[in-house]
Amino acid sequence: MMRSPLTATLLACALLALCCVLATREGYYAATVDRAPALRRLTDFFLSPWNYKRRIADLSAIREAIEHYNRDHGVYPESILFDGLHSAFGASEPDWIKGLAPGYLARLPADPRHDGRPDHQYLYSSNGTDYKLISYGAEDIEIVAKLRPDMIDPNNTCEAYGFWTRGATTWFPNPHHADMTEVRLRDLATLASALDAYQKKYGGYPVSEGFDGLKTRWGRSGEDWIKGLVPEFTKALPRDPRRNDDPANQYLYKSNGRDYKLISHHPEDCRLVKREMPGLIDPVRNCQAYGVWTKGGRDW
C-alpha cells in the first residue's frame, strides 16, 4: 500500500529528529557518519512513493513540452549528450533542454531529491530526430517496475525510467563517452592514413560493394570490410567501440576507386563532435554520422 505524502514527510522528519537527538550524545558523532548511508536509504524508502508521483508528473510535463516543440519546429531540442541540471554524461546547465522554458514550460523541473549528485538527475538526450528523457538513479525504480513497466529503460533496468522515441531506445548515459570519441577519432585517422598509403602505391582506393562494414545493411559485411589494407597498410581493421552487432552502429566504408567515404554511423557522441569538430559531421546525414572523405565522396 502506498503511503500518503503527508505520512511519508512526517516519517522522514521523525528520522531526522532522531538523528539530531542521537548526534548530541557523547561519542556518537563518528557512529552517525558511519550510518549516514543507511539512514539515507531509509529516508529514500519512506519518500519514494511521493517522489514517484512527482517524477511521473515532471517527466510527463516535459514530454508534452518536447512534443509541442517538435510540432512547432519539426525537430526536437538538441542536446550535447545526456544533459541535465547536474550531469556526468553531458552538459550541466539550468536550461538543460534548450528552448523549452519559458515558451513551452514555465521552468525545467529538478529531481525531487535536490542533492546535486550527477547520478540523481533528470537527463535528456536528442539528435533532433529522436530523444530520450529519463529519471536516472531513482530510488523508486521498484515502484515504477510494478506500476509503469513500460517506462523502465531497457538499457538501464535498475537505474532509469522515462520516455523516448523508437530511434533512441538503445541510448544510455555513459560516463566513458569521451573515451569512445577518442577511440573513434583515432580509428578514423589510422584508416585514413592507411587509405592514403594504399592510394599512393596502387593509384586508387580499395573498391567497395556499397557502404561495407563489419555488419551492414548497405553493402558487404565481413571482417575484411576494407579489402587490401590488412596487413600491408594497417595491422587490423578497427571495430566501433560499442562492439555490438547492430548494422547501424558500425564503421562504414564506400569507394569507387577514385574517391571514398569513411564514417562512424549513428554514434551517440555526434552532437559532441558537431560542437567541437563540425568539419567531421557528415553533410548528408547531419548528426547521424561523422568521419572523413575525399571531395568526390562527400555527398554519398
Short structural summary:
The chain is α+β, with helices and mostly antiparallel strands and 300 residues long.
Overview of this protein structure:
The protein is an alpha+beta fold. It folds into two domains: 47-168, no CATH class; 177-297, no CATH class. The chain contains five helices and nine strands. It has helices spanning 5-23, 29-73, 141-147, 177-202, 270-276, and strands spanning 83-84, 121-126, 131-136, 160-164, 212-213, 251-255, 260-265, 281-282, 286-293. The strands form two sheets. Strands 5-6-7-9-8 form a five-stranded antiparallel beta sheet, covered by helices on one side. The protein has a four-stranded antiparallel beta sheet with strand order 1-2-3-4, covered by helices on one side.
Report the strand count.
9
Query: How many angstroms separate the termini?
Result: 59 Å
Radius of gyration, taken over Cα atoms and rounded to an integer in Å: 25 Å
List the uncertain runs: 1-36, 38-46
Number of separate domains: 2
Bin the helical content: 25-40%
Structural class: alpha+beta
Mass-distribution shape: elongated
Largest sheet: 5 strands, antiparallel
Question: What topology, given as strand order, has the largest sheet?
Answer: 5-6-7-9-8
Number of helices: 5
Strand percent estimate: 5-15%
Query: What string, H for helix and E for strand, traces the elements in order?
Result: HHEEEHEHEEEHEE
Instruction: Round the mean pLDDT to the nearest integer and report it.
Output: 83
